[in-house]
Automatic annotation (TrEMBL):
ATP binds at residue 69. Transmembrane segments: none annotated. It catalyses: L-seryl-[protein] + ATP = O-phospho-L-seryl-[protein] + ADP + H(+); L-threonyl-[protein] + ATP = O-phospho-L-threonyl-[protein] + ADP + H(+). It holds the Pfam family Pkinase. The gene is AFC2_7. Residues 40-416 form the Protein kinase domain. This is non-specific serine/threonine protein kinase. InterPro entries: Kinase-like_dom_sf (IPR011009), Prot_kinase_dom (IPR000719), Protein_kinase_ATP_BS (IPR017441), Ser/Thr_kinase_AS (IPR008271), SRPK (IPR051334).
């Protein structure tokens, strides 16, 4: 569950429904409701997840906007919240300057309501998720220099989590990385200069949450109807049938932070064998051969590919005679080559999928390719871009987790620090003007002839 203004655990056309607003479930929040002795005032809902809802709130003590995450009240949800608070507290304590590109916990407290006692977390307000950014870009893939900018933030966060704290995120994906601000400036309460709501507006009944959901459902129906009409017109060659123009990402702040530590664990205190969202899951997790920080690096590689192409790297599906896991392993080997036999046969579940020779039992005919060829043929990368990009990604997708580079090593990779050949920089340092044109440097002393 992220704290983005556009986030949700499901599609944007869904809501959490009313069924979970009961004992042990969600707390019903109304605009203007106060929390923690009046310190936080609810402004509007940002999103929801299986365990919680997240609200934009105004902090009357700091005079700033924050994200207020309100957990369901049942004991199992409270226990999950305590675990996340422990993780987030360690993250905040180790990063007093708030410079590591990881979401910051500001406060936490308990709130008692009609449905029970809810653990609440106050987090810094952040913007849209990387998934929203990819959607905004119409799934076309971002320019590589913009991908690099995002990579540096994520890797800085992972380096901090892995090396300094010993934490494995275990659920890295586009939804769990948020921009520092919103794509649409009007949705950012700070940039838009939104005046805070300090008391409950008149006319909002006690059933404000119910009314909000009903109104949202009506709007969803209207959007679906409009979409059907648009699709019908497009299929008939009418208005809206042409390709959409590319959107410019210039001016959007691409700095971002890693969020959602509900499933994170200490490297020496793992509590789940099956981690990661399916499309970002590492092979060692599928095979149950043990995992560590390198599982996060596999997920990171999947994120980077998705940012650069607009498509997921792996989208496995079960079929007749084979499972989703088997299809996933087959897709990996079609793109990355045959899995070494010691890796294929080294997990607790290896015998479910592989024979003693390291071949899949039920998917025998694989269509082998390469990442570099895929980038050229399908995504129209230039040969040099595909070659350099693949050199960055392929080590992260090594079947042997021990061989994958760390976040710190990735930060030193040439691809991440390359500059465009046509880039021109003019800087002034200590009375010396340095002009960089492509790969050449020309030094001119200030004031000289």
């Amino acid at each position: 569950m992220s704290c983005s203004p556009s986030s949700s655990s499901a599609s944007e056309d869904e809501d959490e429904g009313m069924d979970s607003y009961r004992k042990g479930g969600y707390h019903a929040v109304r605009i203007g409701d106060s929390f923690s002795g009046g310190r936080y005032i609810a402004q509007r809902k940002l999103g929801w997840g299986e365990f919680s809802t997240v609200w934009l709130a105004y902090d009357t003590r700091s005079s700033g906007f924050v994200a207020l995450k309100i957990q369901k009240s049942a004991p199992q949800f409270a226990q999950a919240a305590l675990h996340e608070i422990e993780i987030l507290s360690a993250i905040a304590d180790g990063d007093p300057s708030n410079s590591k590109y990881v979401v910051r916990l500001i406060d936490h407290f308990k709130h008692t309501g009609p449905n029970g006692q809810h653990l609440c977390m106050v987090l810094e307000f952040l913007g849209d998720s990387l998934l929203h950014l990819v959607k905004y870009n119409r799934y076309k893939g971002l320019e590589l220099n913009k991908v690099r900018e995002i990579c540096k933030c994520i890797l800085t966060g992972l380096d901090y989590l892995h090396k300094e704290l010993g934490l494995i995120h275990t659920d890295l994906k586009l939804e769990n990385v948020l921009l520092l601000s919103t794509i649409n400036a009007t949705k950012d309460p700070i940039r838009s200069g939104t005046a805070p709501i300090l008391e409950r507006p008149e006319g909002i009944p006690n059933g404000g949450t119910t009314m909000n959901i009903i109104e949202k459902k009506l709007k969803q129906r209207a959007r679906r109807a409009a979409a059907r009409i648009s699709n019908r017109r497009a299929s008939m060659g009418g208005v809206g049938g042409g390709p959409k123009a590319n959107r410019s990402l210039d001016g959007i702040d691409l700095r971002c932070k890693v969020v959602d530590f509900g499933n994170a664990c200490w490297a020496d205190k793992q509590f789940a064998q099956e981690i990661q969202t399916r499309q970002y899951r590492a092979p060692e997790v599928i095979l149950q051969s043990g995992y560590s920080f390198s599982a996060d690096m596999w997920s990171f590689a999947c994120i980077v590919f998705e940012l650069a192409t607009g498509e997921m790297m792996f989208t496995p599906k079960g079929g007749q005679g084979f499972s989703e896991d088997e299809d996933h392993l087959a897709m990996m080997m079609e793109l990355l080559g045959k899995m070494p036999r010691k890796i294929a046969n080294g997990g607790a579940r290896s015998k479910d999928y592989f024979d003693k020779y390291g071949d899949l039992k039920r998917i025998r005919r694989l269509k082998h390719g390469s990442l570099e060829k895929l980038l050229i043929d399908k995504f129209r990368f230039s040969e040099i871009d595909s070659h350099e990009f693949a050199k960055f990604l392929c080590p992260l997708l090594d079947f042997d987790p021990e061989n994958r580079p760390t976040a710190q090593q990735c930060l030193q990779h040439p691809w991440l620090n390359v500059k465009s050949l046509n880039q021109t920089e003019v800087k002034s340092e200590s009375g010396v003007e340095k002009v960089n044109v492509g790969m050449g440097n020309l030094h001119m002393k200030g004031g000289g002839k």
